[in-house]
Amino acid sequence: MAEKKEAALNAMSISEMVDLCEGLDCWHTRPYPTHGLDSVMMSDGPHGLRRQPEGADNLGINISLPATCFPSSGTTACSWDTELISQVAAGIGREARANGVSLVLGPGLNIKRNPLCGRNFEYFSEDPFLSGKLAAEYVKGMQSETSVGSCLKHFAANSQEYCRFSSDSIMDERTLREIYLAGFEIAVKEGKPRAVMSSYNKLNGVHTGECSRLVTDILRSEWGFDGLVVSDWGATFDRTEAIKAGCDLIMPGGSHYGRKRVLSDLKSGKLTSGEVRACAERVASFVSKSKELSFVPCDMQSNHELARKASEESAVLMKNEGALPLKGSACLIGHMAKELRYQGVGSSHINPTKLSNPTDCCDYPIAEGCRPNGETDDELLKAAVELARTVDTPIVFAGLTDEYECEGLDRGHMRMPDGHCRMIEAVAGVNPNTVVVLLCGSVVEMPWIDRVNAVLYMGLSGQAGGEAILNLLTGKANPSGKLAETWPRCYDDVATSEFYGGKDALYAEGVFVGYRYYDASGVKPLFPFGHGLSYTQFEYSDIAMEGDCVSVTVKNVGDRAGAEVVQLYIEAPKGDIPRPCRSLAGFAKRYLKAGESARVRLPITKRSFAIWHEGAWVVPEGEYILHIAGLSLPYTPDCGVAVRDDSLSGTWYANPVGKPVPQDFERLLGYKYEVHEKVPGEFDLDSSVYEMMPCSGVMRLLHKVIAIVLSRANHCKRDMSDPTFRMMMSSASGSAIRNLCICGGVPESVIELLVRLANKSK
Ligand code: BGC
Fold it and tell me: Of 44, 232, 410, 493, which residue is the catalytic one?
């Protein structure tokens, strides 16, 4: 195969190689049949296959062939079950294979640093270890069982949607390594994905796909990645720089994007043919590997069953004062009982093969309680309350509607729709046995929590959610999920609440992300990371070191079968260097019958204790404490070294109580970062319509034209309350204006003229 690829490249002209490194259209690589290279197809994931019909472009986001909609990654992460994640990925892979898709664009493993990120539902966790392990199993499950490749995304430091095409993620090296790269590192080393997708954002001033330190030095040289680096769709700003950095495939294709420039840079010597050939070789290898795919039909019914299993095993029983499992009579309340909210909006949107709503799975009476948009009124509430009085247990379905959770848009607050809260409070007011089934892909405030008996968090449960919910409520299935992110009481309690969501993303909280902040600051969350109840109980005993593993015995001491997630945290000794109080270093899920026990062994390595310090991983010396459930064990690694660094003494990082201020961040970075907003005269092809609109009439007009074109192309109303339309507007108007020539087909000369006009505005 290597020889064939070599021969193909030797026969190609340099300009053919430049073309090979750019997609043919939205979803295919360019074919070179005379050189033995086919066109291969890729489609979106991560929780199902979004294969668009031939001829469609990625603007018609919801138009795709039917596929199984599994629970979204933010939900399956709560299973903490590597085997399950692997099975789900294999299920998606089987559908991809049956559809001729060679690469699935997922999983996404960006870190959830703030609850408002509109894409949190697509990401696994606030913790890099958990994210990395789950992503690695996803990749292994898909690639080993089906030969379909999977693609980690979005590399890297891409944790906000606001200004997603232009924002600059500003952070110090230690935070980058310990939090934002660590998950990718695990997934690359253990999973060996066929591809990695660069992100839209910049990292400390450089677009990630054009950053050779990230793509070549870290990803390829340090971590040993030998696959394809593909740009996110429209994320290439300077194609010469992308090639130099080792970003191999520029997507989508369709407009000879940046080609002219690359050819002239080759002529002038700014770019070498060797650099182009290196990218072309990796595209050719990727194409050759993809050719091995053979058609096997997929059993869609068994994938639906798998989606149900995944949903059941990912549900988190947040609170239960005895109402669950159900006893006696019950009723369903809330529009979402009839029309389940089961997935988020954006490029991950799946056209499900079937859909089970709670009302389809039982014959409990129902009151709507609220409208589809989450609003309610006295009449709807009255009917809900009247019904709730007549049963032993009212079950209220509430959460977030589509407008709240959407790619390309961050949430404006952490509250649920007002109507949902009113509905819960009204029902709980007449029946203290109220159960809430929570349907949302990320954290919400729960001002009503003390008034309800039980809360079952289903996340975004996929197409079989209705069946899973009923099985869990009735006790046919036993909840075993654990939260993969902390649920704070209110948005003010979040470390980043005061500075998240600006044009540039300032990672001023450093390594104190998620539970690392709540532990250190003493702010008590509503539900901590790792929390989740069961209908049975587990007891732990006999923690000990056994070789390189921390071992513990876990026993199901209740009267029904269930699963427990054993979680190992390592507490660091106090030293000069600010460190989180503890970090997750191992986990395993075990299914145990009533009365059964198991010895669970969790491996630890030098890295489990290490921090990134002065360009290397080092283990600060001292006595660490290993924690599993209520048990603890002191442990002193023999690789500890003395680490002295008081550069952060006296700053927030030394005592992370309250919120960091700009002076703290300046000390962390070692320089003062100021956000720069471009003004007329400074605009270029990287500027967005949104950026130029405030001072340019031409751009305001262009914005209107974009709205008309997008609504026509998608047969939808020009209505900003439609999340898909809003997302498409934000993609077209928020990305670099040069992207209007991709798919949009606007000639580059016209775009250049528009930018010249914007630069002249007063
Ligand atoms: C998203 C990616 C997605 C790609 C193709 C981008 O806008 O960020 O996650 O895979 O589009 O649809």
Answer: 232
For every residue of 629-687, which 3-state class applies, written as one string?
A: CCEEEEECCCCCECCCCCCCCCCHHHCCCCCCCHHHHHHHHCCCCCCCCCCCCCCCCCC
233 lines ligand 1 (CB under 6 A): yes
Confidence of residue 581 (pLDDT cuts 50, 70, 90): very high
Q: Which phi and psi (to 5°) does residue 527 adopt?
A: -135, 125
- Furthest C-alpha separation in the chain: 81
Question: By alpha-carbon position, which residue is closest to atom 11 of ligand 1?
Answer: 233
Q: What is the pLDDT of residues 301-340, one digit of tens each?
A: 999 999 999 999 999 999 999 999 999 999 999 999 999 9
> Does residue 721 surpass a pLDDT of 90?
no
Residue 58: CB within 6 Å of ligand 1? yes
Query: Using CB atoms within 10 A of its CB, is residue 638 exposed (0-12), middle (13-18) or buried (19+)?
Result: exposed
Judge if the beta carbon of residue 22 lies within 6 A of ligand 1: no
| Ligand 1 touching residue 754 (CB < 6 A) | no
Cβ(434)–Cβ(394) under 8 Å? yes
Residue nearest to atom 7 of ligand 1 (CA): 233
CA distance linking residue 642 with residue 484, whole number of Å: 33
| Residue found by looking up tokens 């209007």 in the block | 740
CA distance 714 to 365: 38
Q: Cα(168)–Cα(685) distance, rounded to whole angstroms?
A: 17
Spatial distance between the Cα atoms of 55 and 237, rounded to a whole number of angstroms: 26
Whole-angstrom Cα distance, residue 91 to residue 670?
Answer: 47
Contacts for 593 with CB less than 8 Å, ≥ 6 apart: 556, 561
Across 405-423, b (16+ Cβ under 10 Å) vs e yields bbbbbbbeebbbbebbbbb
What is the side-by-side strand order in the sheet with 505-506? Answer: 206-207, 202-203, 168-170, 505-506
Task: Name the residue with the closest Cα to ligand 1, atom 4.
Answer: 233
Token pair of 413, please?
């607050």
The token duo for 752 is: 């250049």
DSSP state, 181? T
Span from the CA of 346 to the centroid of ligand 1 (angstroms):
8
Vertex 684 angle, CA 680 and 688, to 5°: 85
Cis preceding-peptide flag for 46 (omega within 30 of 0): yes
Q: What does the pLDDT look like over 11-60, one tens digit per residue?
A: 999 999 999 999 999 899 999 999 999 999 999 999 999 998 876 555 46
Q: Residue 88: CB partners within 8 Å, gap ≥ 6?
A: 47, 70, 76, 138, 141, 306, 307, 310
Whether 337 contacts 357, CB under 8 Å: yes
What stretch of H or E contains 133? helix 128-146
End-to-end Cα, the chain, rounded Å: 59
- Give the Cα separation of 561 and 478 in Å (integer): 8
By mean pLDDT, which of 136-145, 270-279, 724-733, 742-751 is the weakest?
Answer: 742-751
Q: For residues 342 and 120, what is the distance between their CA atoms, to the nearest angstrom?
A: 14
pLDDT in tens, 437-477: 999 999 999 999 999 999 999 999 999 999 999 999 999 99
Q: At residue 269, does pLDDT exceed 80?
A: yes
Half-sphere exposure of 357 (CA within 13 A, CB side): 16
* pTM, full prediction: 0.96
Strands 101-105 and 206-207: unpaired
CA proximity to 509, closest of 615, 671, 668: 668
- Phi (first) and psi of residue 480, to 5 degrees: -140, 10
* CA angle 481–483–489, rounded 5-degree value: 140
Q: How far is the CA of 246 from the centre of ligand 1 (A)?
A: 20
- Mutate which of 347, 726, 729, 743 to test ligand 1's pocket (most atoms within 8 Å of Cβ)? 347
- State phi, psi for 468 to the nearest 5 degrees: -60, -45
Distance (Å, rounded) from C-alpha 430 to C-alpha 388?
Answer: 7
- The predicted pLDDT at position 564 comes to 98
